[in-house]
Fold:
Amino acid sequence: MSEITKKEERNVPRYRPATDILEREDGFYIYIDLPGVKREDMTIDLQEDELTVTGVSRLGQGEGEHFVEMQFGDSEYVRSISITDIVDRERIKANLENGVLELLLPKVEKTQPKRIEIQAG
Amino acid sequence: MVIDFNTLYNFPSRFDRMFQEFFRSPMGDDRRFAYPPLNLSNDDEAIYVRAELPGVKIEDIELTLTDKTLVLKGERSAPQGKYYRQERPSGVFNRVINIGVPVDRDKVTAAMTDGVLTVTLPKADEVKPRSINIEIA
Structure:
């Protein structure tokens, strides 16, 4: 069964989805356009420093439909992003809404500066 | 830093170029034409107009149906912040679609699912295919 799904997926074109990466005070935000991708059809993997997002869009058209113009179709989206050490890997949040994946990568809390007492000998 | 940089120079690396070749759609590079990309199709019952508009709310889209055209208007806003990379298109868009067939104007519907807008324009009764009984004399 898995072999069949693999073959099916190989037939759809692959794209690097359009991605915005920006920084705000609370961390890095990544926005990825994934039109037509449902939550169950996508995966986000974090391996070492590489975050990989994959998704498959299924547009689902009715039977007996004739296409006059086709500028987008079913596709597979793959995008890898290297992330820095200052990202807190445990607190990465992902939210897929209306075809856009939002990833929030918070920064690691900075260690507070600490004064070191000098003991008088 | 968040890498995946290339912000200043848009030179695709050799690796990227290889993948772009790989990832290209078999239908040609239609994606660069106009925004948003459209699919137009029809069956016996209706005409379907689909547009890829990820992140745009249905309330922010203005659809106008005139005699022979459907106008799709709206604006896509970019999130605020310090950008390292910006690839997602933003700004005002406007597309005019010619509808050559009479449609039932009161039954036109629009829906947005997962960033894909679908406008369904039911064909007017007079253009729907009908079967005619032929009586044999």
Remarks:
- Chain B is about 5% helix and 35% strand.
- Helices of chain B lie at 14-23.
